[in-house]
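Troubleshooting log. The previous structure file for this entry was overwritten by mistake, so regenerating from the original sequence record. Sequence copied from the archived sheet and checked twice against the printout by T.R.
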Amino acid sequence: MLSFNAVHTLTGCLLDVEARADQLGWGRPPLLLLIQDRPAPSATSGTRRELRAAHLPLNDARMSRYRAGLTDFLPDLAATLAAGTHIRRPTLAACLDIDLITELLAEPTPGLRLLAWAVCYEDVLVESAEPHEIRRIDAVDADHRAYQITRLRGEQHPIVFIDEHLGDEASAQSGLVRLVQATSRPSPPSPPQRTA
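Regenerated output below.
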């Protein structure tokens, strides 16, 4: 279970990613994020943790091989990572560096844990029959809490929405849920309790 501080830190990380994307401007390819944390090396108590957000750019031209885009791509990636069969998946391998993801997930650092998977992408929002360009960051954390950060083109500030209960509709978030399920490490066993 993620603490309030972990949720707050994760939200801040996602806002930083969105702010950086806004600085870079529009027309950028989608970006997949693997967000992990581990005990801070300088912490003496073991309670301080440090966050790592691995930025995994997606090949936008190759993503067109997925008919529904991210909605099809993310579950395919989750199934591949769960099964360990990425060598035989040329369509998926053309979209991103699967070996890098495998290395990040297999890193033997003690206390390393998955915090969330996220994706930053541009979309079109149709309101009142008028299309608007919108940047979205969708994320799902290890507790299956959903995060969505959106910014319409020309807006000064993004909007943040955090939902404790995910819906079942096909979306980028449902694909992120599958990624979280496929890549979460089991919790280490609790030390045995001593009885007096």
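The chain is about 35% helix and 30% strand. Archived copy saved in two places this time.
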